[in-house]
Model the fold of this input.
Amino acid sequence: MRIRTSPVTSPVTGARAMIPLAAATALLATGCGDSGDTARDERNGKDTDPVVATSFANAPKAYPLDAYRPTAAETSTVDHAVRVLAGPCLKKFGVDWPAYEAPGAAIPPNARKYGPTDLESVRVYGYKPPLPDGVTRQEAVAAQRRAQARDKAVTPLAAAVYTGRAQEAEKKGGTTTEVPAGVPEGGCHAQARRAALADRAADDLTEVQTLFFEASATTKKDPGTVALDKRWSSCMRKAGLTYPDPLAAADDETWRTQRTSPNGPHPSFPAPSAKEIATAEADVRCKAATGYVAKRHAIESGHQKQLIRKNAATLTAVNDRKLRMIERAETVVAKEEK
Done:
């Protein structure tokens, strides 16, 4: 399990786009009860204050491949359009589905690609995933509860119609809710995605993500990255810490197995220990001292550009479909809002 994060709302794909899920609640990390090494929460329980205002000030900026995937705002528009287009189908079968709700603030997509980068953030979260900048713990908890309430409001019949899949009974001995006759292939949701020109979006996103991973793999072996990791590691040794690179520090199993207070600043993760915070602080300082983020971003951007040239035809087609999908979604949403 990696603890680096991406936005909670996935771009126009997956179950999150189909059925609202209180996913953050399910992410609750291991560990409950207090240990003597738990870091003190300096907020003094002020859940109505933003936890951190600048978690991502020094995070990596956009990469060349980002141009080929929808932005958070574009994703929201497409998801909204899909919900609008699914409406007549749902009505035909006499079922209700929660109204579209625009997502709140999100973590930038590349925010922790190389681990944490800002001292203010790690002093609160350590290596745990942060809340979006400016979001209060109270707001995060409220969002979770709204998602849970939306989930509970969806009946098994509505889920069968929307997804096109039979819904297994939760309780042993219960009856399975079958998909009614006449429901389109993939349910009302899939039909709406086709109408929104979003039916290829998941495959296209996977295509782009695969190139991201390929560039990351070749970047890791790049002589410039190897030298950069050595400088960062040498800096960490001066603080008494031994890690070969920043992601090794971020992925240290210790941060997932330590028993700390479950009531952390992020409601879905336990509080970081004092040791975790101290390590993350040294990590961020060493990144700053070596210019790690900017230099590795430059190296990785170069590898991405090579892949873009190599896969020009495929990416041009991906981008054309993305633009058509967004244009269609904007038209649907604008008509619905009149």
